[in-house]
Write a structure and sequence with these properties.
Helix content is about 40%, strand content about 15%. The protein is an alpha/beta fold and about 375 residues long. It has two domains: about 5-165 and about 360-375, 3-Layer(aba) Sandwich (Rossmann fold); about 180-355, Glycogen Phosphorylase B (Rossmann fold). Strands 3-2-1-4-5-6-7 form a seven-stranded parallel sheet, with helices on both faces. A six-stranded parallel sheet has the order 10-9-8-11-12-13, with helices on both faces. Strand 9, helix 9 and strand 10 form a beta-alpha-beta unit. It is elongated.
Length: about 375
């Protein structure tokens, strides 16, 4: 007898950036096709990553699945209408990849009698959205949390949560022979050694902390340069660049702009730094750090939720969030080592991510989650 496949409907507001969209697509493509049937629901067909998702062959639908929360009567009417639309997919589970505290989507799923789960992606909770997060969580069948701090801070006694941190493709990010054109692109001489930071350039990422820490040792380590990889088309990035010029470090701290394939840049680096601040949304489970580890890099990360989970086995490679002196001292020790020593050290990080944060393990955990809540 043929097995009945579980139908999973993924919802996501947009594919404007490849962060959440990439995570969703990797999961949807990775599920066992003999056990699962997947579809995606999105608000619109714009966005840089939408075409990639479309080319995957996974059915993707466009509709407004986020009714406005006020006025109440209109909200309930819209949710009832959305519930009927959800039923047309006949899903066994709806899984939301929306980062916000919206609760109308899960309310519609509840009206339709469809199990609804969401992934908690960041450390947002308090303020004006606190009640919305509580209601979203109350309506959820299960909640996939990405780090242990989320569970302890937001759901200390909940039976709904399942810890599912992000995973990374070990084959896609394994170390390779660097491509010469990348050094040329980054105007970096062949004798220079490279520290890299890959991040969406927004204030919470704390890039200024890395710049300040490196400034204190730049003269002592002229053979080292910092590559900052990420979209630099915003006011925060402009401010960072102005700081670099003011400190006369423009030949040692270099910005790449947005890059679709960060792996090409990781292949050149020896050290990776993620200086996220302990404020705002913080981190969920930062995949950039995992990609660097899979690439065999020695990594340093600030001691904030998400990062401290990933580096729990390497506490000496955590530094105080916002602590430029702490980061400077840790960098200083590592920059004294030769390339062979750093490579050997990086292999420990590579083994760690393979054991605990592989993409296959993330997919396996989601598969178990879906099976545990399906009515089939």
């Amino acid at each position: 007898m043929e097995k009945t496949k579980l139908k999973i409907l993924y919802t996501i507001p947009n594919f404007d950036t490849a962060g959440s969209g990439k995570a969703l697509l990797q999961l949807a493509k990775g599920l066992d096709a003999s056990l699962f049937e997947v579809a995606i629901l999105c608000l619109h067909d714009r966005g840089a990553y939408f075409e990639t998702v479309k080319q995957s062959g996974i059915p993707i639908y466009i509709a407004d699945f986020l009714p406005k929360e006020r006025p109440l009567l209109s909200m309930f009417q819209a949710c009832w209408k959305l519930a009927q639309y959800f039923k047309t997919f006949q899903p066994d589970v709806i899984h939301s990849f929306h980062y916000s505290s919206n609760y109308t989507e899960p309310l519609a799923a509840k009206m339709a009698g469809i199990p609804w789960v969401f992934t908690k992606k960041n450390m947002s909770w308090g303020g004006a959205s606190k009640n919305s997060w509580r209601l979203r969580s109350f309506l959820a069948t299960k909640i996939a949390v990405q780090n242990t701090d989320m569970q302890q801070a937001f759901y200390p006694s909940s039976s709904k949560t399942v810890l599912i941190p992000r995973g990374v493709s070990l084959t896609a990010f394994k170390p390779d022979v660097p491509k010469p054109e990348i050094r040329t692109k980054m105007t970096t001489d062949a004798d220079k050694r490279i520290i890299i930071c890959v991040a969406n350039l927004v204030p919470v990422k704390g890039i200024e902390v890395l710049i300040a820490a490196f400034e204190k040792i730049a003269v002592a380590f002229p053979q080292w340069v910092v590559w900052i990889i990420g979209d630099d088309n915003n006011a925060y990035a402009d401010q960072l660049k102005q700081t670099v010029v003011a400190k006369q470090l423009e030949h040692q701290i270099l910005f790449s702009g947005k890059q679709l394939d960060v792996k090409l840049f990781l292949d050149y680096a020896e050290l990776f730094v993620l200086p996220t601040l302990n404020e705002g949304r913080k981190e969920g489970s930062p995949v950039a750090l995992l990609e660097a580890m899979a690439n065999g890099k020695v990594v340093l990360g600030s001691n904030v939720p998400g990062i401290k989970d990933q580096l729990a086995s390497f506490p000496e490679f955590l530094f105080k969030a916002g602590g430029e002196i702490d980061l400077k001292e840790k960098l200083e020790k590592l920059l004294l080592l030769d390339a062979v020593s750093l490579k050997k050290m990086g292999q420990q990080f590579q083994q760690h991510v393979a054991s605990h944060y592989s993409l296959s393990l993330e997919i396996e955990r989601h598969s178990a989650l879906y099976r545990s809540i399906s009515k089939k």
